[in-house]
Amino acid sequence: MANILIVDDEVGIRELLYEILSDEGHDVVVAENATAARAVRNAQRPDLVLLDIWMPDTDGITLLKEWSANGQLNMPVVMMSGHGTIDTAVEATRIGAIDYLEKPIGLQKLLSAVKRGLQRPAAPGAPTPLTLAAFTRSVPLRELQRLVQQVVVNSRVLLLRVGSGSLAELAARSFQSKASPWLDLSSVSTPLDLTQLQACQGGVLFVAELSRLSRTQQKNLAFALERLDRYDLRMVVATDHTQETLVRDGWEESLVLRLFEVSLAPPSIADVRDDLPEIAAQLLLHLVEAGEVPRRQFSTAALNALRAQPWPGGYAELRAAVKSLALGTLDEEISLTDVRRLLIPSTEGVVAVSLDQPLREAREAFERLYFEHHLRLEGSNMTRLAERSGLERTHLYRKLKQLGLQGGRKSEEA
């Protein structure tokens, strides 16, 4: 029989549904809130989920959206509510729920909904790409998602002003309707034609960095820009160049002005460094769900080490690193050792300090290099850093502060 997950904050309802479905021969697991539901979903991959809408930590609609954004909505979900409305039911169905049950739930309605859900074929293909909606615990990314949604309603074109560590692709994916086409114009080196635009109808055209486009690709961009309405397309482009710089480099001024009409300055990876563990964990989960990597999970130390990395290549570099780590270990858990071996280049014996400066400045430069190196190696774990450096903890914190370096939080030091 099937593995069914029941998510409801009311213990009486959980117990009742558990008894009914267990008597029907199903393997039933219960969760009292969204946090527990996420853990069960990731660990057991249930065949069907009965999901309450009104819960104290995260409501069911938000959790449904999160699963959809993560590419995890590949199991049937039946929503439950004692205070539901038609609008709520419609929204849940639009997101991906297959049915909606009003409380109190009748026995026959419950069994019929479960039967219909289990008879549905499994969702085909790989999960949709990650969007900003997948990262529910990051305040900057939630804010960026709201801004992107606001732009989507009012403009077909968005320019992202980015620099090193760009999250441009993640923002652009959030401009995209579920399962709609996606075309990276920087990958098209020949003249664009109407057939290609028609194949992308309703989708998104993307450019990660305008300054890298050839003359032909610039013409492709202008060609597509004039036909966005005709093919219901949206365009998201990114650059760290100014309008003046692009024009000096030979871009047509009218095209540049059009592209810069609506722009946002999204945060970089450096701006969301504290959220990197969540971002990396979600990327890994998405790769597992897509079948691109074996089932893996990160250790806390590994996530801390990823957070300490600079990621100048931005979201694309981080995603590639996560995939490499998942494929580069035979263990189910990706460890700090794996991160060190695959991602952190050895700097042993290399000290880049200028000798043409006063002794005090040279010593400070050496100390900064020393602690930056060992913060990376220890994943910002202050206990291990104190042991390695031979400094007492209070002295260590004071020294890092003097050098302008950020140590780990106390909750992360175990």
TrEMBL record:
Coiled coil: none
Span of the signal peptide: none
Limits of the Sigma-54 factor interaction domain: 104-327
Residue numbers bearing the 4-aspartylphosphate modification: 52
InterPro entries named in the record: AAA_lid_NorR, CheY-like_superfamily, Homeodomain-like_sf, P-loop_NTPase, Sig_transdc_resp-reg_receiver, Sigma_54_int
PROSITE patterns cross-referenced by the UniProt entry: RESPONSE_REGULATORY (PS50110), SIGMA54_INTERACT_4 (PS50045)
Keywords assigned by UniProt, alphabetized: ATP-binding, Nucleotide-binding, Phosphoprotein
Domain of life: Bacteria
Ranges that cross the membrane: none
Keyword Magnesium attached: no
Domain Response regulatory: residue ranges: 3-118
Protein name as annotated: Response regulator
Taxonomic lineage from the root: Bacteria, Pseudomonadati, Pseudomonadota, Betaproteobacteria, Rhodocyclales
